[in-house]
Amino acid sequence: MRTRIVGHCIGGIAAIGIAASIVYGCASAPAENDVSERAEAMMKSSFKAHGQATLARLDQDETQRVCSEYAGRALPPAVAERIEKANLETIRYPADGNLVGDWKSGEKIAQSGQGFQYSDDPKKAAGANCYACHQLSPKELSYGTIGPSLYRFGKTRGYTDETRRYAWQKIYNAEAFAACSNMPRFGYHHILTEQQIRDVVALLVDPASPVNQ
Amino acid sequence: MNTNRRHALKTGGALSLLSLVAAAGWLKPGDAAAADAWNKSAFETHSLDETMKALGGTSPVPSNDIVFFSTPDIAENGAVVPVGITSKVPQTESIAILIEKNPNMLAAVFDIPPGTDPSLTTRIKMAQTSNVYALVKANGKYYATSKEIKVTLGGCGG
Amino acid sequence: MADPMKIRANLVGDSTEVKVLMSHEMETGQRKDAQGKTIPAWFIQKVNVTHNDKVVLAAQWGPAVSKNPFVSFTFKGGARGDKVKITWVDNHDDSRTDEATVA
Amino acid sequence: MRTMIRLAVAAGAAAAFAASIGAALGESTADEIAKYREALQDGNPAELWEARGEQMWKVPRGPNKVSFERCDLGLGPGVVKGAYAQLPRYFPDAKRVMDLETRLVWCMVQQQGMSEADALKNTFGNGSAKRSDLEALAAYVASQSQGIRMNVALDEPHVHDMYRLGEKMFYYRGGTHDFACATCHGDDGKRIRLQDLPNLTKVEGAQKAYTTWPAYRVSQGELRTFQWRLNDCFRQQRFPELAFGSDASIALTAYLAGRANGAAYAGPAIKR
Predict the structure, then answer these.
(1) Is the CA virtual torsion A44, A45, A47, A51 positive or negative?
(2) Which residues pair with A50 in a beta bridge?
(3) pTM for the whole thing?
(4) Furthest-apart CA atoms within chain A: distance in Å
(5) CB-based touch A/B (3+ pairs, under 8 A)
(6) In chain C, positions 53-82, which contact chain D (CB-CB < 8 Å)?
(7) Which of A164, B129, D79, D145 is the Cys-Cys partner for D85 at CB 3.0 to 4.6 Å?
(8) Could you tell me the CATH superfamily of domain D44-271?
(9) Rounded Cα distance, B73 and B86, in Å
(10) Residue C42 sits in a domain of what CATH number?
(11) Strand D269-271 to strand D215-217: parallel, antiparallel, or no bridges (unpaired)?
(12) ipTM score of the complex?
């Protein structure tokens, strides 16, 4: 059907024939599900594995799949509840029960965006890049606003076991509290180690942390 | 050491770099810099010690007649920081830009011949948040002003 | 060979406003490549601007001037059709001269 | 140094930015960042790429010694004026929807006789040792649409289909961080660190963002095209690498360019 298609040969992409022939075969108003399936097939043939970022990264878990489907629209309450429940069940706690580490180390983790990009060294510890989306220590002017300000997180909520536990859970798996949250699931996806999560919790809940000044 | 350095800079130590530069024979009145050899030693000054050693000439006089324009207080990226400097000091002969916390302090020197407005813009690199000095030579004397420019972190991979 | 500069010279009242963009790496000598090897310094050291053979700006630069440098300034005089000539020389002794007509 | 349009867009963007973050950051920081951006507008090194691209356009190239003056970007062989504002589009000769960069590669291979490997050498340039012809050509072609309204043919069935697939991709969450394009670009008035994020789900957001690419990135000292923009977004999303000119890259471009329809093209811009 098609002769030579430059783009498809780029970057050694093979097996485009299937996806592409579907693309051009069904140009007239295909069903919504069909578009989703074709988009997924198109992505799988258009991305190439690069270092640690293999094609498996395109495989969605149930939460990712459902959140993609709703495309930014509000979820029906039952669906949201189901996602939150399933994610809450994934949360693990340290065997020694200690949820709070060192806020100084937590600040470094909050500043660093290194990790899991194909351009990153997989041997180096990943950061959480909290400042990309949240205000934390008032000393850092360069913070994002995708998430709420966490300035005085501990001070506002009280330095209680409940606050510490909530901070742990939220960092571990934010989808447990807000289905389709924009926040990465740092524990669930093993982005941060147990100790790193403790340190970020400390940044939020330690009365001595700059976040609570 | 650090405290000393900071103190010295605030009291005009950094500005005396220009004295060093002047002592090295650079910025001779009426000379076109491009006609001279590139002044290696001036551009390789990177510690206060070096500057202190060369303290021979007079330190520049702080001047309100030197004004930064189109120069933001905060740079979104340190690789390109726009700087504009105007000198209202009569008989301005040259304008130099110095960045306190760069590996080498001196960034650029512009000789301003008669007939050219003592006002220009360019772009410099800043390794980190730092004081930036605008140094002016006029009628054989040195004048300076400074401002702090903050360099911010950006991006998602940062 | 280095790319041409982009020069604009415009008459504004009784003065000529010059704006120039130069194509140059302005490598500091402080950066390292992926293998950890220092990338050698490579930067413009001298710039000379003339109007009808009279120097209107002369500069010496270190590597802290940004990559693809930009300079703007104004000199008194100039007339439409006059030539503004700019030369830069870098630390490899490479150089480039370009000319613009005052508009 | 540029047209009035570009300056007006810059000033507008700066004002909007100042307004959007003023409350959160304190007026002074917002104002200063806006000032920084404004100060960069006068003297955009993108012009150096445009000049090189323009020169390259007219020179016979490749084994066939054919210049781009034979290359049809959709408005006829060699016609550059306004071409970028109508891309991506469906090209019957290639039987494919193509964006500017993909079409340039097609002309290099099909008309100039270059191998694909040669045409795709240095898609993203890196300094003078690794200069990208494609980036220079794209800068030149795009600059020739300044002031012209975006007009991607969304009623053409192939383009329309790519638009719909691109929309799906925009919301596709995946990877270790659960990111989709929409994670960062689905809401108004957000920023990452200090960089404001266009809400690409809204027409105004898509218009403002799309019409300023290609752009000179001061953080890289390079001119970057929209292919690079998408490639680097997915890198930061922790996805695998988006292949240059792949269908997914064109689908997403079609979606965003299509949403920008009606806005005057205002690039190549200068950005952080």
Answers:
(1) positive
(2) A53
(3) 0.86
(4) 68
(5) yes
(6) 66-68, 70, 72
(7) D145
(8) Cytochrome c-like domain (1.10.760.10)
(9) 17
(10) 2.60.40.10
(11) parallel
(12) 0.84
